[in-house]
Design brief:
8 strands; two-stranded antiparallel ribbon; 768 residues; mainly alpha; 25 helices; 2% strand
């Protein structure tokens, strides 16, 4: 060992002395750099020996050149891989194609020559003689072998003009620096641009030594290159949107199988995509934000995967309240750009790269059915229906109501076979895709009633989730035009305040009255549409102030008044049982507070009586009398709430052939109503109590002032719920001048006699 060290030391010293000695210095040739390759240019190196590379005096490779140096083999004299620097990878792995004729997809400028066979070769980009051709990162001088300075991959762009014009050709953005390029990408071999985060060709491509196809810096068959930057999208792998699992034979626009393109490349192409967002599949006209999804999930794709069905959530629609932006859900402009002024599209609710919004680890796998908590949703719509309510904020009251089936019917199932805890409260009745009908209905339709009624009877039937709350055989008419209800007087408080609906379930100004005209199924209490704080109740018994009514119907009959304005005059009178008999109950054992003023006498649902949906037991009526009088005697009879107002004479003699033909105009003061046994109005027949009395109004509509009262506080004269003016009634057809007394004092002959005496003395105390 010692002798070796001594030898090396002696050699170094002699070398230094030799170099330092002017006498022994070699004369430096100006061609010394050229001689590295052009050995035979120096006479001192000429020899008669044959070179290892065969000498060819004519054109070898480069146009207008000759000699051995124009062959590619000369490059190997340095770039043989022996030294582990940039020369090592010149022919390692995958390199830019050489010795091929350029395709029509590239344009070769004149400053980048082709070979003598018009092929791309090493010298197309490289030259040992380029004036000012300095390779990026290299020192100036003769070792700069690029034909042009390659700043930010501009050399690549000189030929690959389509890729450089990425906006026109739907390619990956270049020269953009909106995202931070991770250090990992540079460690893999990416070149930095002028801006560290600037995307250039060499961010993904490596001309020499690329380890992936298409000279990308790493193998991208598993989309490893894509997800190096697009980290969040990595959660797509192994989900149902990884087409290697679900559609392994489906080819993208490049005719690549998912196994060739990788999971990202199945839908995205970095160059010459079919449209925006680098889409790699045929897109139909429309907003790309949804049409991209329909390239697989459309009805005509032929793929055996879940489609959206005939009844699916609307897309390409405005969201007037712009609630999604406030809730973190994106809206999209035409063209697919996210913008708060945009529209609702598929991507508004779905994050196509992530199966579970709250877990990157949960990938779903191929054969796992999704539910409202995953399925590529941006927000889980499970127990709280948070996704749906992000936009449909006016429906939030449902969560704290009896219509939250997760509380009141947890074992019930929708069309998909999901319980409310799996589908979410909204999903119990609505499906965003593949619904049973309009309104995205999630339950089977019976087809036996109007469409909107079927929506309600989907639960409110004998075997349904709401079998304890049925509407019965006798209930308020539905699917009828408002003008057919004979509700009488309307005005500012009329039907316009309650919605009417067409046959498709959409609200229409000239539509029909249906269940949801009076009911808002998403809000239990009209005074608290946002819902109540306490959500622990279940199957709460409602009353006239809540029960999913659009308006509270107590302490005044506001809901019924919206249509039955003329009948709403009962409020505050003695026929308002909240005033005269608040503890009285109807046939369903409801007090006025529970039923409302109208419900004390009429039942909207489950009435035992068809006639006027009567809510009380019919009162006593002689066999030959009209049953309509039984409505009045149900209270005005012994043992009932108005027994103190039971008249000595209750009914008009039958068989008198009373007619109102002469007074047929219902708006006239003298019109008298005649009813048949079914409560229908007719023009001739027998009088009944409601012929002369309007139970909803204390006086004729033409006289609204409060009338005189007797010692007991009872109104007298024309203010005893009489229907017409006392001086002009149908009575005069038979009774002449005596008709006014018979009309005013029909029920009490004693009062009639007293009034007759007063009349004889010209003391018309009974008249106004």
């Amino acid at each position: 060992m010692l002798w070796r060290l001594t030898y090396i030391h002696t050699f170094v010293v002699l070398a230094v002395l030799f170099i330092a000695s002017p006498a022994s210095a070699l004369e430096m040739s100006s061609k010394r750099d050229c001689a590295v390759c052009h050995v035979m240019w120096l006479n001192d190196f000429r020899t008669d020996k044959e070179t290892l590379i065969e000498w060819q005096p004519g054109n070898v490779l480069m146009k207008d050149t000759q000699g051995v140096v124009s062959s590619e083999d000369i490059c190997y004299s340095c770039h043989d891989g022996y030294v582990s620097d940039s020369r090592y990878k010149a022919w390692k792995y995958n390199n830019h194609k050489v010795f091929v004729k350029p395709s029509d997809k590239v344009a070769i400028p004149s400053v980048l020559p082709l070979s003598n066979k018009d092929e791309v070769y090493c010298g197309t980009c490289h030259t040992a003689h380029g004036s000012g051709a300095i390779a990026e990162g290299s020192l100036p001088g003769p070792n700069s072998f690029m034909r042009v300075t390659n700043v930010d991959s501009n050399l690549c762009e000189m030929c690959h003009t389509n890729q450089a014009d990425f906006k026109r050709t739907n390619g990956h953005p270049l020269k953009a620096s909106t995202l931070k390029i991770p250090d990992t990408l540079f460690e893999l071999g990416a070149r930095r641009g002028g801006d560290r985060n600037q995307v250039i060709c060499q961010s993904c491509h490596q001309v020499h030594g690329a380890q992936g196809d298409n000279i990308v810096i790493v193998d991208n068959k598993n989309s490893g290159l894509c997800t190096t930057c697009h980290v969040k999208q990595q959660s797509l792998n192994d989900t149902k949107h990884d087409l290697r699992l679900t559609l392994p034979e489906a080819k993208n626009s490049k005719q690549q199988l998912p196994s060739q393109s990788g999971p990202c490349g199945a839908c995205h192409a970095p160059h010459r995509a079919t449209g925006r967002w680098l889409w790699a599949r045929a897109v139909k006209p429309g907003n790309p934000a949804s049409q991209m999804c329909l390239t697989c999930h459309g009805e005509d794709t032929g793929y055996e995967i879940k489609g959206v069905g005939d009844y699916t959530h609307p897309i390409d629609v405005d969201q007037a309240a712009k609630a999604p932006t406030a809730s973190g859900l994106p809206l999209f402009l035409t063209g697919g750009t996210e913008n708060s002024a945009g529209k609702v599209e598929c991507f508004t609710c779905h994050d196509v790269h992530r199966w579970d919004p709250y877990s990157h680890a949960n990938r779903g796998k191929k054969n796992v059915d999704g539910d409202a908590s995953n399925s590529f949703l941006r927000v889980s719509s499970g127990l709280s229906s948070a996704l749906c309510l992000a936009c449909h904020t006016d429906k939030r009251g449902l969560i704290a109501s009896d219509h939250n089936l997760a509380i009141t019917a947890p074992e019930d199932k929708n069309l998909q076979g999901y319980t409310p805890r799996v589908s979410g409260p909204c999903g119990a009745c609505h499906l965003a895709h593949n619904a049973a009908g309009n309104k995205l209905w999630a339950r089977r339709l019976s087809g036996d009633k109007d469409f909107v009624t079927q929506l309600c009877t989907g639960c409110h039937h004998r075997d349904g989730a709401a079998k304890e709350k049925l509407i019965g055989e006798n209930y308020h008419p539905v699917d009828v035009a408002f003008n057919e209800l004979n509700t009488g007087e309307t005005g500012a408080d009329g039907v316009a305040r309650l919605p009417l609906y067409g046959s498709d379930g959409d609200e229409k100004a000239d539509g029909n009255m249906v269940c949801v005209t009076c009911h808002e199924p998403h809000s239990w209490d009209p005074k608290k549409p946002e819902g109540v704080v306490d959500q622990l109740f279940r199957n709460t018994e409602g009353d006239a102030t809540n029960s999913f009514l659009r308006k509270a119907n107590f302490p005044s009959s506001n809901l019924c008044k919206a249509c039955h304005l003329a009948q709403a005059h009962v409020d505050g009178t003695k026929h308002d049982l909240n005033v005269s008999a608040p503890k009285a109950t109807n046939l369903l054992e409801q007090t006025v507070k529970a039923s409302g003023q109208c419900g004390a006498c009429h039942l909207v649902h489950n009435s035992p009586n068809r006639l006027k949906l009567w809510a009380r037991p019919y009162g006593p009526v002689p066999r030959d009398q009209n049953i309509m009088s039984g409505l009045c005697t149900s209270c005005h009879s012994e043992g009932n709430v108005a027994e103190k107002q039971t008249p000595p004479i209750a009914t008009h003699p039958p068989g008198k052939l009373i007619t109102n033909i002469m007074y047929y105009n219902k708006d006239e003061k003298n019109y008298t109503v005649i009813f048949d046994q079914n409560g229908k109005e007719k023009n001739a027949g027998d009088l009944s109590c409601p012929s002369c009395h309007n139970a909803h109004r204390r006086g004729p509509p033409f006289e609204e002032k409060s009338g005189p009262k007797d010692a007991g506080g009872n109104e007298t004269g024309t203010y005893r719920f009489l229907r017409t003016m006392s001086y002009d009634t149908v009575c005069k057809d038979c009774h002449g001048q005596d008709s006014i007394l018979r009309y005013l004092y029909f029920h009490d002959p004693g009062q009639r006699s007293q009034a007759a005496k007063a009349r004889a003395g010209d003391k018309f105390l009974f008249l106004r």
